[in-house]
Specification:
Oligomer: homotrimer
CATH architecture of the largest domain in chain A: Orthogonal Bundle
Shape of chain A: globular
Strand content of chain A: under 5%
Largest interface: B-C, 92 and 86 residues
CATH superfamily of the largest domain in chain A: Ammonium transporter AmtB like domains
Number of helices of chain A: 18
Helix content of chain A: 55-70%
Radius of gyration of chain A: 24 Å
Distance between the termini of chain A: 86 Å
Order of helices and strands of chain A: HHHHHHHHHHHHHHHHHH
CATH topology of the largest domain in chain A: Ammonium transporter fold
Chain lengths: 464, 464, 464
């Protein structure tokens, strides 16, 4: 029996199995069509090569789409955080921008972003630039199963697409916070569209699309950025810095006598809702980046992510208490985010105590960074440059220090992506400034963008 | 035997393991009880017929309950959207109504709704009416596995129940928004209970319960409504229209000189939170309607759902900007929802570019529809009739245009369900009006329902 | 051949499949490394003993981490509920406390909580006390698979850790609500740290860590608390009672003439958001406590949880309407939570109608309990003692009445845990009171903790 079995080729064996195990199925299918029949047809149709671990594929794919939904809810987190930390007269504007960003981010990703992010063999400049067109029918090539990515990708084409699409809009959302309260809406809408469609996807292709960052040292010294400390958060932070430098601070923020006027946010509950939702969604952002439901790394990533955030919150609370003499809620909230950005590059590659250390250092960095940028008159209402830009650098380098990545490659990757993001964003912003202006008038800024741009107010408490 | 085994290579070992495992399990169970033992007992107990694809069943069932949780959070989305788009003096009332709706919706669904929605062989008028009693022990008939629904349903009886139960309250929630700010609480509580318990479930039985809509053309031309553009959203929208027509507009909304007084919402952040949560929950609403974790359709449905929403947001932003001369946040938010309703009937049956087109058209429709209903003095504070009713029609017909469904059957389904919803809701509302009144007094309306009905205020910012 | 196969029994067939399928894998692995290869290596490496049901393990582990994320979002629910039901002048303080609690809760759980909660063989006083050190590499002992917990635990070590870690901070969060608006921040931060690190984990070890409550009657009459009506919610409620008794009521709450001044919450939308998020997260809290993706219990637990909450909401609405003469939103919201706490001990052990009855009784209890505690001048701004403490008792005993648990053991468990929580919390609070004070000054309380403790305001609506 044993001998006989060994002689049989895989496909035949599989056929036999199918007959044996599922012999009942065809007959049943005639009576009653349902998911099992469809599922078994898939198994059979896929042939021997892709037969193994079908259920592993299915559960991995399920996780991928759930993770996509979790990353989606981060956009609500960004929207409420940004709204909470700014003035109530600009709230409609901020919410509007965030509806725009997620909408245009998803659509452009289908139209050209996905294939530019992953140029595969369609690079115009190999390893550096590959702008390509719309997605096709991603379920086409046996795409319901291993057919799409082969055994190296436990998700369907649409799973791959929707998870990455949810990431794409993030870069623009980070900028949105930094330029809030004085940017011209129409300019921002054009800026964010181009940034998401081309800027983010080109930079991302260098690492995740198989570009030059993924082949450093012939691949042996490849740049390592698990879920995007650099290629998502750092990109957004560096783009924000360029935009803010060109845009200038909010009116009255920095007086001529050198004093800094605090412009406080209008709703701390809204800000806190935002940060907790971001934390929640980050389980999809990092956890989904395992790219399968492999239980070992999945549990580790959830744990390092949560503990880095917690350590960032604690260190930020303590250090800001010392520096600012008060237990500051904004800093506590930014500390959680700092911890999250700091672990994003290495969530699968460090121990839990390294994760806590990385998060705690991120929580300290963010406090000093926010104070520093305010001192040099870079006016970032929500601290986005510090949270995403500065902690993005730290998180990326930390994988070289703790997680076994090549530290030099990490440096190269940070510099490559940050410089590109800064230049791309800056050039785009300067062009927009020349062509149509990027800033509202001083009167409009004083009146608030809600009235001047939208003719709506965010709150109406006196209506009877 | 043991010696022999040691010599065998891994694969064969694994084979033997499989034999051993399924054989040894009872013995192991004695030593150590745990989920595997229980699981394997289930596999054995189910016998040959249901043995295949056990893990597929398990992962599909997991997705079903997660999707149920996602649909649940849509109720928070509805509550905050409705509260945000109305006046602050009616906020307690709105939140209260939504607590009531989800509570009574779940309980009535257990008491009679589920078995009325799925009458199986207990129709009183076959294909049209089958009002039945409470659910029993849905795990009874080998219900932990394929035993409940056979190979055609990859979920347990409780999975089936809880997912559908979360849908049930939606119809009443849609009406809640349309009648807000002037409806009498006690009347609404009775109305919503009967609507959810009988109206929604009867209409739903025509399609999902195997009723006449599912057998059009002998089943070959069956009405197609994947996740409920018509049988959930359209039902709610049509019911809302009847209710609003009987109830009349809010005082002062339409002046005698023909002018329309805008009554603006009190909190756009609350409204935006609502829409983003609805978008988030819709991944469960549509994704869960795959009714399994089958990776092919699951990825497609997530993608079409997200892209239709995004396209609806964009088209609504652009068209309302042209029509209203301002970038309107309410319209942007309604555009996202319009896109979602528009794709709900065909999320699994169209390409991603068809999905975007369907969503974009929905986003245009909703803008003109809201303006139209306001012109004809149908006062719908949140635009529910337009979002759910009008886009529900569009979404359903669109599956006939793009998705291969029979267009005539789609028409018949829309007319059947909308007319029934309109008549059921209208008759119920007229009876309540005659018996106990459906509207608060003008003084109460002016004072606000929070004080007049609840003796509470939603906000208290001056307390020290 | 076909005939031969037909004769084979099910298990052998499985064996053949295993040979066929896994035989091809090594060859493939050389070509293309990916999750499947890693996954199959795991399967092989784990050896015969742990080979079965790998996919069941994977899907169960996925559910565990998703459930952890759902429990995480409960912390946002607690934060917003507590903020909403209190005055706006204390909102920053409340949000800050909640950032602290989740952060320190996660970190202490890694440093000592987990190994104290589950002392395994490292008890100092067997069955009663086992304080132990930090977690190590929980993926070490073949921890990616059944290696960590054997066949009795369908999750990895990190899955186990992160799910339990999310529970841990809950106890402190419950206290946070009860002591709101007058507690000194620094004292609360120390208190909550010790309560979470030692108090909760020690009490939990008695039941979930294999301690004395799990061995009552030699294990035959073991205390039964499925997801923690007593060991989580009851613990928090009893700890809160001790804290409130020592702390005293808010200034002016109880006048000398015996009258009670209502101090109303500042934002009912925030409170409602909190309760709906708690309801949402409870699907992870109870559903995750199935500790696997076993479809039978999973569907049942989701159903009983939702229906108990709904019944609690309805009964609370009706009874409070009768008692208070008004439909009270706070009571409606607390009714949902009361239903949830009431089902938590027995969610897997009762029928759906028993679940509704348990929830409905919880909803009644919470109304009278809140009124009662107010009468005896226990000032609990959010009703935490009633919701978590009182309904925790009811839910635990109800499993003895309806769910087949030993009623005497349930009594013993309640008394044991509640007395311990009360004494631990009280002693800790008294020490803190003596050493550094636990209450802000009357001026600070009057001014609000936001200004006096943080120098920040939660809302700034007049900024231009």
């Amino acid at each position: 029996m044993k001998k006989l079995l060994r002689k049989l080729t895989g496909p035949l064996l599989f056929a036999i199995v199918a007959i044996a195990v599922f012999d009942l199925t065809p007959a049943m299918a005639q009576e009653e069509a349902g998911p099992v029949d469809e599922y078994l047809e898939l198994v059979e149709a896929s042939g021997a090569e892709y037969a193994p671990a079908f259920d592993f594929f299915t559960v991995s794919m399920l996780w991928t789409v759930i993770a996509a939904a979790l990353v989606f809810i981060m956009h609500l987190g960004f929207a409420t955080l940004e709204a909470g930390l700014t003035q109530s007269k600009n709230t409609v504007n901020i919410l509007f921008k965030n509806v725009w960003i997620i909408s245009i981010g998803l659509v452009t990703y289908a139209v050209l972003g996905f294939n530019t992010h992953y140029p595969v063999d369609a690079w115009q400049i190999p390893g550096w630039l590959g702008i390509n067109g719309p997605i096709g029918d991603l379920n086409a090539d046996g795409g319901d199963t291993w057919g799409y990515g082969g055994l190296s990708l436990a998700m369907t084409g649409y799973g791959d697409f929707i998870f990455q699409a949810m990431f794409a809009a993030t870069a623009a959302t980070i900028v949105s916070g930094a330029v809030a309260e004085r940017i011209k809406l129409s300019s921002f809408m054009i800026y964010s569209t181009i940034l998401v469609a081309f800027g983010y996807t080109i930079a991302g292709s260098w690492h995740w699309g198989g570009g030059w960052l993924s082949t450093l040292g012939g691949g042996d010294a490849a740049f390592y950025d698990f879920a995007g400390s650099t290629v998502v958060h750092g990109f957004g932070g560096a783009a924000a810095l360029a935009a803010v430098m060109i845009l200038g601070p909010r009116s009255g923020k920095y007086a001529k006598d050198g004093s800094i006027k605090p412009i406080v946010g209008h709703s701390m509950p809204l800000a806190a809702v935002g940060v907790f939702l971001l934390f929640f969604g980050w389980f999809g952002f990092n956890g989904g980046s395992v790219l399968s439901a492999n239980p070992g790394p999945l549990g580790l990533v959830f744990t390092t992510t949560a503990l880095a955030a917690a350590a960032g919150g604690i260190s930020s609370i303590l250090i800001s208490w010392i520096v600012l003499k008060k237990p500051d809620l904004s800093m506590a909230l930014n500390g959680l985010l700092a911890g999250l950005v700091s672990i994003t590059a290495g969530a699968d590659a460090v121990t839990v105590f390294e994760a806590m250390l990385m998060g705690a250092i991120g929580g300290v960095l963010v406090v000093f960074s926010i104070i520093f940028f305010d001192k040099i008159k870079i006016d970032d209402p929500v601290g986005a440059i510090s949270v995403h830009g500065v902690c993005g650098i730290w998180g990326t380098l930390a994988v070289g220090i703790f997680g076994g990545a090549n530290l030099m490659s990490q440096f190269i990757g940070v510099i490559g992506v940050y410089v590109f993001a800064f230049v791309f964003s800056g050039a785009l912003f300067l062009i927009l400034k020349a062509v149509m202006g990027v800033r509202v008038s001083e009167e409009e800024e004083f009146e608030g963008l809600d009235i001047s741009e939208h003719g709506q107010e965010a709150y109406n408490h006196s209506n009877t």
